[in-house]
Amino acid sequence: MIGLVIVSHSATAAEGICEVAAEMGGDAPIEPAGGDDGEIGTSADAIGEAIEAADDGDGVVVLVDLGSAVMNADLALEMTDVDAEIADAPILEGAVNAAVEATSGKATLDSVVERAEEARDYRKLS
Amino acid sequence: MADDDTQREAVRAVAENVADRLEDEKEYLTDLDSAIGDADHGANMSRGFRAAADTVADADDAEPADLVKQVGTTLISEVGGASGPLYGGSIMSASQAFADEGITAETSVDFAEAYLDKVKDRGDARIGAKTMVDALTPAVHTYKKSIEQDDLPPLTALAKAVDAAERGVEFTMPIRAEKGRASYLGWRSVGHQDPGATSTLYIMEELLATAQEYVEGEIERDATAVEEPDEDPTDVAEDGADSDADDEGDAR
Fold first, then answer.
1. Rounded to whole angstroms, how far apart are CA atoms A122 and B143?
2. The pLDDT of residue A9 is above 50
3. Model ipTM value
4. A-B interface: how many C-beta pairs under 8 angstroms?
5. Please, what are the domains in chain B?
6. Which residue of A has its CA nearest to B179?
7. Domain A3-121 has CATH 3.30.70.20
8. Which of the 8 DSSP states describes residue B88?
9. Taking the CB of residue A10, how many other CB atoms lie within 10 A of it?
């Protein structure tokens, strides 16, 4: 099954988003990687560990918030052997979409990324 | 350059000197960063390079390329934020340039180019966005041309690169930020010098100071003179009296 990693500057935000996504995500492994040593920030090492933890062999999709989250996730991808990709999507909506897709029997790394990125066009008010 | 032992010693000395310098400049960098960022650049960089210097101080038999890589990976772990991937990640990946032949004039050009490419790619920053790219780009271009086309000795080339970086740092002051946290300030970022460009200059200055101890030869100062077009052709005929216009002023 495709795993998910949620990268946020805030550890609390990352855990909260995992909570929301897990409701929709059934058995899909979802790991938070929030904060940097207990402070606000992001850490490539922490993201790398979360990617390893979320991988059961099928690969991992990474959802990120702002700025350094993207750079540290990018770097974590370079440093791991796990087949992983960053989805260019809003973090919460993207995570929910990705979690739903990950539980589908036919899910692939590409299909989960694609589904997460569909969340880019969501509007809150019609 | 020299044998592996000398290269190792030089890498350790660079890390140590950069760590000391960033410790000295910690408050100044933090002041710059508090104006347009989150006021942690001085502390983060100083802590990171101290840890990197300590890491490589104990590594006796690593290849020079591996030592440089260890500096990068330590920075990734210790610096965090955006600076971890930008400085540490770029050093880590550029260290590949030293893998086959160690540290030579030619491989140092490859290292510099790979470092710049990685920073631009990872940070998605172009020149003029008020980032370290504004100091790095002129420095790397000047270094490459000095070595590859002008056949200048490495120390002279590096000295020219440092001069170019210094002018790049000055260029960040009057322009508006387009990247990083400073970009959220919009026009309020104008008038502040970029902390990342500034720490990049300090790193390069220490690189040059350390290289002077390990690389043979002297800096040919004539070769570092800035070539500027004559402002007004009618002024030129007089004499060369204006040649000190670019004396190294105190940038701060």
1. 48
2. yes
3. 0.86
4. 43
5. 4-220 (1.25.40.340)
6. A67
7. no
8. I
9. 17
